[in-house]
Amino acid sequence: MKTYQPILAAAFIAIVFASCSEPKTTESSESEVAEEAMEAATAEDARPSPLMVKEGQISGKAFKVQYGSPAVKGRELWGDLVPYNVVWRTGANEASYVDLAEDMTVEGKKLAAGKYSLFTIPKETGPWTVIFNSDWDLEHGHFQYDEKNDVLRVDVNPVWEDSNEESLSMEIENPGIVIRWEKLKLPITIN
């Protein structure tokens, strides 16, 4: 019996040691997952142009807009940072997009339910061109823009206000979506 005691004691110690080390692996995995989530959240917070999502209803129909919100930061915007007569992603980073749950009209023209990237062509004078493009999931905004995927183009008159909006915003409000940045107010009629 004496020869079995050291073997049993060693086996018992090995079992206890093995069972104690498994939860540490699980805790370690949970810690790593939590740490990765914190890093992702910190990276999102560190974006120079925060990602914004607005959801609401237009004429009783669900509507969503997602965009990167750049700040003016003392820069000359119109005709400089955002050139005239060139397609602009209407935001920062990836392409801004809208998601229509049902068919709607934009400036009196039909737009079928679906997701569309949102671009504009700013003009020094006169109406701006607002573009809805079927390729909505573009990582690099206007750098990947392809005119052949345009679903709808409409003209919208910008309004220049005295007040200043530091960060670009897109609000779901009357008459549909209103884009504001610096002194620009671009009201896009949607029903």
TrEMBL record:
<feature type="signal peptide">
    <location>
        <begin position="1"/>
        <end position="18"/>
    </location>
</feature>
<feature type="region of interest" description="Disordered">
    <location>
        <begin position="25"/>
        <end position="46"/>
    </location>
</feature>
<dbReference type="Pfam" id="PF11138">
    <property type="entry name" value="DUF2911"/>
</dbReference>
<feature type="compositionally biased region" description="Acidic residues">
    <location>
        <begin position="29"/>
        <end position="38"/>
    </location>
</feature>
<protein>
    <recommendedName>
        <fullName>DUF2911 family protein</fullName>
    </recommendedName>
</protein>
<keyword id="KW-0732">Signal</keyword>
<dbReference type="InterPro" id="IPR021314">
    <property type="entry name" value="DUF2911"/>
</dbReference>
